[in-house]
Amino acid sequence: MTMTETASTASEDADVDALLVRAASGDCDAFVAFYDATAPRVYAVLLSLTGVAASADALLEGIYVEAWERMRGRSAPPCPGMQWMSVIAHRHAAGQR
Fold it and tell me: What structural domains does the chain harbor?
């Protein structure tokens, strides 16, 4: 990873966190943008954990429902947004086994 890639990733993570903060205040468009920015990576985590595309598909929606419900009324996620989503994905995948 180069310095440019590291800076780009940090900027993307900050953008994702900003979307999540806006979504917490009820901004549905921000949540849609947050979903669009993070769903491919969350799906990849789920697929690597479950090994079954159908299971990853089934879990994905529940993860975002939980994120939406848990973010309401918060000023920020408990950790960086993508990291938080990965934690939720791991928990959902573990419950699937």
Answer: 3-96 (1.10.1740.10)
